[in-house]
Amino acid sequence: MLAYFWPKSNIHEIRILEDAKVENVRLIDRFNSRQQIIGNYHNNYYDSSFPIVKYFLLLLLRLTGTIYLTSTHLIFIDPEGKRETWILHSLTSYVDKLPTTQHGCPLHVRTKHFLAAEFTIPKERDCADLHATLNQLKPDSYEKLYCFLYQAPNYLEKIWDPFLLATEYVRMGVPNTNWKVEDGNSNFDMCDTYPPLIYVPILTTKAMLFGSSKFRSRGRLPVLTYLHPNGASITRCSQPLSGFSARCQEDEQLLQCILKTNPYSSTMYIIDTRPRINAVANRAAGKGYENEDYYSNIQFKFCSIENIHIMRGSLQKLLETCEMKNPTMNQYLNALDNSSWLQHIKSILDAAILIARAIEVEKKNVLVHCSDGWDRTAQCCSLASLLLCPYYRSIHGFRVLIEKEWLSFGHKFSDRCGHTATSDSKEQSPIFLQFIESVWQLSQIYPTAFEFNERFLISLHDNSHSCQYGNFVGNCEKDRLDLCVKERTYSYWNYVLQNVNDFKNPLFRPQSSYASEVLLPVINSQTLKFWLSMYHRFDSSLLPKENISNTLAHLVDHTLSLNDHARLLEKRIRELHSMLDGDPTTIPTTASSSTTTTATTTTSNEDVDDSDVEKGNHHKKISLPELDSGLSETELSQTRIADSISSKLNTILKPSTLSTSDVESGFSGDYSPHGKAPLSSFILQHQSSIDTNDIPTIERIALELNSIALDWRSYHTPLHCSCSLPFDSAQRKYNCWRCGENFCARCIERGIYLPGLYSNSLAPVCKTCACSIKSSPSFADFSALVKSKSTEFIRNQTAMKLSRSMIIDQFNNDR
């Protein structure tokens, strides 16, 4: 099997040879087709209780199509092109060749984002070749990862928004009289999995730090990770190499220095996130936990968070539960309980709440560690910070939290996610997934406290495995510096920034008490939920038909579009009202009439209340552009005087016909996507695009009316985009603001000015509508007008500020 892949410009050009595909492949879809097909045939023609009908229905559930292979993806396309299934090779968890049946040779593919696909291939030899090829296509080194090949869309630049750890500590008030920054790790000499800059108590010395580093596993000495406004702190480290009797005076002194940074408490906690029996067992290997006889004024607590191997097995059982075929209620619930997945999530949340309560209520410092300090420690410290600080519940703050606790302090993403084929399978574990799910569980308890939504969390999980962006490549900051990921790859956070509206929670209320306070929930067994949208995201029949968050986001966008359009219509009505109430205008009675009378009218881009027009009160309100301009009232009044002079224009009414190009482009007066009546054939003559206050033509008004969709299609209606890409719970559906239909991200253009919007802001438009809009000459005039207005406003603003500075300078000189 051969597949060729070339990055070209800003797109992926995929060329597949004849022998790089497998035809007549059947994809078994257990969920998405079952309900619809069984319902149709059972209700209309057949009784599904007969065995022959059940066999016939089973065959219908198999979608026949063709598999194509590229160096990065497996692509399944059905013959009619109504469905596409794309599987990124780096997301493939395993490929299993099952025993041959009478229908062919089954190939089971499971991905790291929980897609389970079973392909039935007619020939066993083709199945064996495909199985071997898929296993070979998984990258075997960092250099072959997808992020080093990926070419992003044009709107996404290869620019990394720099994260500076020092900036986050400054936000927390560090350095101060108790804490200082230490650059002893600038060359990663002290600890190669820590950031170059670490924050330690001000009383510490370099001898203390290096001594403690040698006494801690992997050199991960206690350092500051979070400082609460009340002075209590969270520090993190790894287990001590204490064995049964070993001790380190430098480490003991360092902990006493940490204790002294908090003047409100004489004791501090050491929280070992492992079960006590595990910590005791590690003593036999020369590791273990702190000896209470050597550390004074310390309170020890153990948490029952299991190790990476237990967590990996738990996830495996959970996925087997999700893939059960037609289970009974008891079978499904018992299997879910036997996986112990939710019990592990509860243990992680309990430990985080314990830390947060010690900081907020008891005002005590807390030192957190597990074995090596990069798995359970990262989970607990980041969740405790999330509970304590509302800033981390924003989209930007959550990014900072991930950068600080997980990336800077060395969570082993490549090992835990299995980025390469050479990764040790025993090192893989869903540590980051458990953190993501714990955050989701908190968002279900406090739905108004988090700025980000479920889609953001799912996207974060998927991109930590896919290696599409360079942020999560490597096991520590040093690895990413060695790979030069910032120079060679795209940033996931830049992608989030460019699509931030997709990830916002419509229920978020910054002014609510939960959004601005410390969260200390009480977690019971009944509190936790099974995350259906994560583990069953591709099983559309199991997901809710109406997602509350998506529905609210849909309503918010639709309301925004209609309000913006309504403001423009109100403006046009006021302009027509002003024209009719002004000086008489002679309207020609025939097309050949050459007699015209000019009328002087005054129009404005600013809003004027109807009551003001009736009273003859034409005082201008300050528009949004003026509000953002930074000009004073005096400067704004001078600008309005200049605008009022240029706004007295002469209009001539004459009959005319629309151009052929406008009719073909869909923006003529006769155009109506919903069968609306054609507009009048009389148009107002075009005004110059340099006029700040333009008088619209009827052609322009028709363009404005037909460029905004009043009715939008509901999100729950389509299961697939028009490009055949299936929608799942992690993928946002976009409504085209012109036609109102649903589309996926690759079928939407976001940089289109719609004439029907008052704000002249960019709107999401499908590619079909975008091409139609751009081909209209009327739209070209509109675009020129928008640009000229922006240029003129900026020119006026600059001139006013320059005049103001000259007056101030003259005034100062006169003094």
UniProtKB/TrEMBL annotation:
Keywords: Hydrolase, Lipid metabolism, Membrane, Metal-binding, Zinc, Zinc-finger. Its EC number is 3.1.3.95. It comes from Rotaria magnacalcarata. Residues 580-618 are annotated as: Disordered. It is an enzyme of class 3 (hydrolase). This is phosphatidylinositol-3,5-bisphosphate 3-phosphatase. GO terms for cellular component: cytoplasm; membrane. Coiled coil: none annotated. It is found in: Membrane. GO terms for biological process: phosphatidylinositol dephosphorylation.
